[in-house]
Amino acid sequence: MADNDRMVFRRASDQKWIDKRNGASRGFVHDTQAAAATASKARLLNSGGGDLTIKGRDGLIRSKDTIGRKDPLPPRDKEH
């Protein structure tokens, strides 16, 4: 994992969606998962790329994707 990797998840206290860089203590708050994912993709593109992990309402990983740089394991990426 690189320093630019980001995660989108649902905060339990107020049910808001958080877009956060891995290792950071704070993140950006969004009302919907789609808004958080779009903002996270834009931040990854602006910062040189990285991996985006999106978790569902249940907290399990729903999607993983490499944004803005070459995917190191392209055969395993069956989503895109």
Description of the structure:
The protein has one helix and five strands, in the order βββαββ. With 80 residues, it is α+β, with helices and mostly antiparallel strands. The protein is 18% helix and 32% strand. It is globular and about 35 Å long. A five-stranded mixed beta sheet has the order 3-2-1-4-5, with helices on one face. It has one helix spanning 33-46; strands at residues 6-10, 17-21, 28-30, 50-55, 61-67. The mean pLDDT is 88.
> What percent of the residues sit in helical stretches (DSSP H or I)?
10-25%
User: Which structural class fits the helix and strand makeup?
Assistant: alpha+beta
Order of helices and strands: EEEHEE
Low-confidence stretches: none
Enumerate how many helices there are, as a single number: 1
Q: Which word captures the global form?
A: globular
The biggest sheet amounts to: 5 strands, mixed
- Number of beta-strand segments: 5
Mean pLDDT metric? 88
Distance between the termini: 20 Å
Biggest sheet: strand arrangement = 3-2-1-4-5
What is Rg? 12 Å
Residues in β-strands, percent: 25-35%
Note the topology.
Elements: E1 6-10, E2 17-21, E3 28-30, H1 33-46, E4 50-55, E5 61-67
Parallel strand pairs: 1-4
Antiparallel strand pairs: 1-2, 2-3, 4-5
Features:
80 residues; 5-stranded mixed sheet; alpha+beta; 5 strands; globular; 1 helix
